[in-house]
Amino acid sequence: MLSLKKKAHSDLHARSVGLISDTHIPARAKKIPAKVFELFQNVGFIVHAGDLVQLEVLDELEQLAPVLAVHGNMDGPNVREKLPEMNTLKVLDWRIGVTHDSGALFGRSKIRRIAEENRFKVLVYGHTHRPSIKWENNILFINPGSPTDPLPPFITRPTVGILRINRDKIQPEVISL
Questions:
Q1: The domain containing residue 105 runs over which residues?
Q2: Does the structure show a pLDDT above 90 at 150?
């Protein structure tokens, strides 16, 4: 669980969560696009769903808000030893899980099982580099895509996501950069 003691945020900010994944810095891009910092300027938290490649990505994002992150399949030993495979964040009464490879490419059974076993109301995942928002049995499954390496290129644009949360509902959005 993320510790939020290092930064105090107002209740209003705590209701917005920035979502990012598959940044692959510096392997596929030199830096996080400036538009990401613009979009995440007023979020209370940031969730990174893996494949950072360099831990410095977290340092940059933490200039804006506390970051909850997991490692991905392209992250080396230095990232894997610092970040778990799965993590959890609770905003208001919403339990949000994050993992890199949810198995979504091979059907919905693994992703459903992860969410149900952990009682997640939201499961954020990455790996595919393709944005996706799906609701199933009152559980939100969201992939913010990639801000630096969308797949397939020329069809999918660079993207991030934002969750707007209140006590009654979550409004997910994927934003093209």
A1: 14-176
A2: no
